[in-house]
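Example record

The entry below shows one chain as it appears in the dataset: sequence first, then structure tokens.
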Amino acid sequence: MGNRKLIFFLAGVIAAAVHFPATAGYSVVQFGAKGDGRTDSTAAFQAAWKAACNTAVSSTVSVPKGTFLLRPVSFTGPCRNRILFQISGTIVAPDDYNAIGKSEFWILFYKVTRLTVVGGTVDAKGQRFWSCRKNGNNHCPPGARSISFQWCSNVVVSGLSSLNSQTVHIAINECSNMRLQNLRIVAPAGSPNTDGVHVESSRGVTVIGSSIKTGDDCISIGQGGMNVWLERIGCGPGHGISVGSLGNGFNEAGVQNVTVTNSMFTRTQNGVRVKSWARPSGGYARNLVFKNLVMRYVANPIIIDQQYCPDNRCPHQECE
């Protein structure tokens, strides 16, 4: 009997180890980050990520309360185990919009799998950049996307707030199995090209239970977007939820299996929209489902535009 009890005890220990794996924690403050809103903490964030990425057990990168200034930063995988990126404070861009605006990305996750990003606020301080664009200044930088995921898989983003992105708030490209939930995305109605979430060349993307107020599409799905589920989205102001623009080239991946459901649009230019340039293309949009949508003060509740030509600037076709 004693041996049996010992065997059962050891089995319980092994089971506990399986269900409760060892974890390692790395605070960005340990690596020199300062939450004063002025000190450049980019190197400290990268060092904390590198330590977590190279650890054999599940790891946490923590950003405590405070305001942390970041220049363009890349968190690169693959990593040895799953990572929790826990943000309790606020991440801000430098006041000079050129500091991130000359880079395509501000915060980039590249080739990372089994990642969870929780909480916190990122503020790109896009106001001066938008003013530069609106004034027709030829010396404006192209602008940065706030948070980008490239070649990532099995990612959850939960409870994140993104404010005042220079261009797209959250960009998903060449990714799979992405779940974004309880997001809060905010930019003024007049801010140009500030899409809330942009999905392209990715499959298995869910956005659920989120509030998106912006100057462009609340959510946009570009070529190669497949198996996309959008539910309980509060959209507005903005341009609505769009598939496209499609037809940029003839050899283009299509969009399919997109569902938008149980969502509300308030004071948006459009509700749900499919848009393409008027030119020959092998691309397509199929199996699109729009259901249980409430629209208040929406100019175009449902629109299919096959001659997309914003502001009479048509780089892909002749305007009529």
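Notes for this example: The first helix runs from residue 2 to 19. The helical segments are 2-19, 42-53, 98-101, 127-134.
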